[in-house]
Design brief:
The structure is a single chain. Helix 2 links the parallel strand 3 (40-50) and strand 4. The protein starts with a strand and ends in a 9-residue tail after the last helix. By secondary structure, it is of the alpha/beta class. Helix 1 runs parallel beside helix 2 and helix 3 crosses helix 5. It is 35% helix and 32% strand. Strands 1-2-3-4 form a 4-stranded mixed beta sheet. The chain has 5 helices and 8 strands.
């Protein structure tokens, strides 16, 4: 797994690129050391693949990061969403800032991803739709919509860091 730290606007963004598998999991300690303490956003839009080895290393990595400062996850792919839905211990919804929702156009069959912010996911009712970037027809979410709905429902539940009134 490759990674790059970008600093700006008072926050650090770490863009991850590649697979979170056996090799990618081994890089997490180096990434954690390079980030140091303080708030960070992990950009996951370019994470191509996740497997159980990666998730096994990812969950403790997130807990360590959260203890060092505010943590946000952007561009969470459906590969991560599936693990969140299957494994309660892998649920890291409390850190999710946005999810990449996959779409397919029924007119031109173009496939694409559209980033949806946390608030939009929590408020989502029914199936999301978005204009196709190729032909401008309204496109629906792809076959993973059921996984997305389950994940959105989990975001509606109180998270460990939420304050109660």
């Amino acid at each position: 797994m490759k990674w790059k730290i970008k600093t700006g606007s008072g926050t650090r963004v770490v863009a991850l690129h590649g697979a979170l598998d056996e090799r990618g999991a081994a890089a997490l300690e180096d990434i954690d050391d390079a980030i140091g303490d303080g708030p960070v956003t992990l950009d996951l839009a370019k994470v191509s693949h996740v497997n159980s080895y990666g998730v096994a290393a990812w969950v403790p990595f997130l807990r360590r990061r959260a203890a060092k400062g505010e943590l946000k996850l952007r561009g969470l792919g459906m590969n991560f969403v599936g693990y969140c839905n299957i494994l309660a211990s892998a649920s890291f919804g409390e850190f999710v800032d946005s999810v990449l929702v996959p779409f397919i156009c029924s007119d031109c069959e173009h496939t694409f991803e559209q980033e949806h912010e946390r608030a939009a996911l929590i408020a989502m009712e029914g199936e999301p739709s978005f204009p196709c970037p190729s032909c401008k027809s309204i496109s629906g979410a792809d076959a993973s919509i059921d996984e997305l709905k389950v994940f959105c429902e989990s975001l509606r539940r109180p998270q460990p860091g939420d304050k109660t009134v």
